[in-house]
Design a protein that fits this description.
NTF2-like_dom_sf, Nuclear Transport Factor 2, Chain: A, 4 helices, 31% strand
């Protein structure tokens, strides 16, 4: 199956920094984003990202299965970025199961979802910890990439010491 992507041309107005206001208008910025080729709709990406986060917190394996179904069979999940990635849907599901089985209670809330092309960034508020303990509160960035069928092919999770309270 092949999909043709229409090539779009755009011309953004220059942004000046010579003591004047930016000359890039909202319309030019939107046109620039609209010119990025995509395989799936923005609505699909936003819905998928929200579906991913809606499975938190999970108490039983059945509650994480819908999260795993969002992934392509050869997807890669890197959490946190720089750690060895989980490669393939089965390995990703095993990772989700292992966090559940370890007793971790994880809450995730996407505060803002930014979509560009076939990717999205979620500015996420999260917390995790074991029962009867004070959870860590974390600000994270999730980077999602989607294939032409609308499945997630990559997730990269960013956070560091400065985002943990």
């Amino acid at each position: 199956m092949s999909i043709e992507i229409e090539s779009k041309q755009f011309s953004a107005q220059p942004i000046t920094k010579q003591g004047r206001k930016s000359t890039m208008s909202k319309e030019a910025a939107v046109a620039q984003i609209d010119a990025v080729p995509t395989h799936v709709t923005r609505a699909h990406i936003v819905d998928s990202v929200r579906s991913f986060f809606s499975t938190y917190p999970a108490a039983q394996v059945e509650e994480i299965l819908p999260r795993a179904e969002l992934f392509a069979s050869d997807a890669v999940f890197e959490d946190p970025v720089g750690a060895p990635p989980y490669v393939g849907k089965a390995a990703i599901l095993d990772f989700f199961k292992s966090t559940l089985e370890s007793g971790w209670i994880i809450h995730m809330h996407p505060e803002q979802i930014i979509v560009c092309g076939d990717e999205a960034i979620s500015l996420t508020a999260g917390s995790w910890g074991l029962p009867d303990s004070e959870p860590a509160h974390v600000r994270l960035i999730h980077n999602f990439a989607f294939d032409h069928t609308g499945k997630i092919v990559r997730v990269r999770v960013f956070f560091d010491r400065g985002t943990v309270a």
